[in-house]
Amino acid sequence: MSQEKVDKYKKEKANRKKTMKKEKIQYYIRRCVVAVLAVALVGWIGYSAFRVYEDSRPVETAEVNYNAITDYETSLNTGE
User: Fold this and answer.
1) What's the pLDDT at 48?
2) Residue-wise pLDDT tens digits, 2-14
3) In degrees rounded to 5, what are phi and psi of residue 65?
4) How far is CA 44 from CA 37, 51, 79, in A?
5) Alpha carbon distance 55, 48 (integer Å)
């Protein structure tokens, strides 16, 4: 081996622990980012499917009859 290769190897060997630790951290960060994106994507798809399902259901409406309240107010106003 040439002296350059020997020096390069020694330098690499001296920094091997740092390099491996850095690679390990980068690996876990990438996995966490991918996991967060996957959860967000699944959540978005689920929410969208739920909205489509809810929008396809008929809307229930209720009618309120205020005649009793109006009659009561009228009786109060005429009683004065």
Assistant:
1) 96
2) 888 888 888 888 8
3) -100, 115
4) 10, 10, 60
5) 10
Residue 78 in 3-state DSSP?
helix
d(CA 35, CA 71): 63
Q: What are the two backbone dihedrals, phi and then psi, of residue 59, each rounded to the nearest 5 degrees? A: -90, 130
Cα–Cα distance between 64 and 70 in angstroms, integer?
12
Q: Is 46 exposed, middle or buried (0-12, 13-18, 19+ CB in 10 A)?
A: exposed
pTM of the model: 0.56
- CA dist 69 and 51 (Å) reads 38
